[in-house]
Amino acid sequence: MTYGSGRPLDARVSGDPNQDDNSTNDRLPGYSRNAFQGPDYATTYLRVTRRLLLRARIQLDLTAESFNLFNRDNQPVTITDDGFQNMAGQFTQLSKTLGISHFPAYFQRNSNFTKATNAFAPRQFQFSARTSF
Length: 133
Hints:
By secondary structure, this protein is mainly beta.
């Protein structure tokens, strides 16, 4: 059995809000690094093997394996929108002046942030036979 707590997530934004010419490392304002946590992960792996002696020097090994035996719905948090990688917010470059205040940009919050949109593999069985002589 394997169990893991949820992995930490950053609230990143796409675009370049701090204008450092690197659009892959900016976080949503007000959130620190790894501010969110994804769902936990648990799976059970079971393997059963039986050896049969057919003749003096011939043996048959039968194996049955199961992955995710209890069919737990393990969902990763992949922040996507329409199948494309998306972040917590979209940084939109827009120069706007209201009165004497200048606003160089604004954020749009992603509606799918921290919602699972995918799942790991469901229950699987595998059978095998091996002959040794």
